[in-house]
Amino acid sequence: MQSDRQDDSRLLRGQALQAAQGWADSRSLADLDYQFLAASQALHNRELHEAETARAQVAEAQLDKQKAISKWQRLVLGTISMGFVVITGLVATIAGIAIGNRYENEAQEIQADAIEEILEIKDLELSLTKLLAYERELITWLDNPAQFQMTYELYQASARDFEREWAALLEQYKIDIESGFEEAEEEIDFLDYLVENYDGVSKTYVQGVDQFITTLDVTQLEGEALGEARQGLIDLNRRPAALKLEEFSEKLPGLVEIIENKELKEAEEVIETVLQTRNQGIAISAVLSLMIAGLLALIIIRPEQRDSRKSTSNSLD
């Protein structure tokens, strides 16, 4: 309290926060304790959002870097190709470039799709985390009607965000599959598992919370009624729908891990291989062109040298 609630270093994080919340679920704590837990959860949400924002920026930077490299490679390749002496070498180089570009473009599309999917899932994770956090914060604000209403509105907005982002993610997968875009089999199997086990759970969870809150008159809560209201919200977190939603939150990172280890990694390897192969092809073509140019020069110079020697011999005679 001496820090006037401004010192974030005193708040709980990670496993300590999870343990404290689990411990608090089965107990009726003082208001300051609930506010402390709420502040810790709010800090956790903020740090999670900042981490995901940084990750999104890194992903965008990677895409920009790949585009810049690809543009530079094409420029170098075009410059070298203009200097080829032999038509055969030029045709072979262009053919190799076309094949490399095709594989590179396909890999870049897969890479962009994988990054987009990861960012969408991260947004989904964040919305779900906020939804669960705001629901827990409601417990601490039952004795403050204005703050309770504001937190409840944030809770409802997070629920809408989660439903919208979950539906958008499923729709994007559907479009990709129907258009023939190749997704990793393990990724599709895991997504099917999530749909089978958790689709619709959030709606059930939110409906339960909404129904309970409609029975409350927060402006009139005090004493025993206030304690019963808090216990009611705590009990909501123990229902099957709440537990399933917690499981869903824990499972989502698994989908990100599959995408990173399958689609994203394979696409990056293909792009790297194509760039290396193309650079090697360019270097070989350039060397061959110089060698052929040298041979042509010798062919041109040698007859002149022979004619010069013959002319000198004739003059001596």
Number of domains: 1
Beta-strand content: under 5%
Number of E strands:
0
- Our Rg estimate from Cα atoms comes to 33 Å
Strand and helix order? HHHHHHHH
Describe the main β-sheet briefly.
none
**Class from helix and strand fractions:** mainly alpha
Helix coverage percent of residues? over 70%
User: What are the low-pLDDT stretches, counting only 5+ consecutive residues below 50?
Assistant: none
Mean pLDDT, all residues: 77
Figure out the total of helices: 8
**What would you call the shape?**
elongated
Beginning-to-end CA distance, first to last residue: 116 Å
Report what the structure shows.
With 317 residues, the protein is mainly alpha-helical. It has one domain. It has helices at residues 14-25, 31-82, 87-140, 145-178, 185-198, 201-214, 223-236, 240-316. Helix 1 runs antiparallel to helix 2 (31-82). The chain is elongated, with a radius of gyration of 33 Å.
Q: What's a concise summary of this model?
A:
The protein has 317 residues and is mainly α. The protein is built from eight helices and no strands.
What's the topology here?
Elements: H1 14-25, H2 31-82, H3 87-140, H4 145-178, H5 185-198, H6 201-214, H7 223-236, H8 240-316
Question: Which structural traits does this protein have?
Answer:
8 helices, 0% strand, 85% helix, 317 residues, mainly alpha
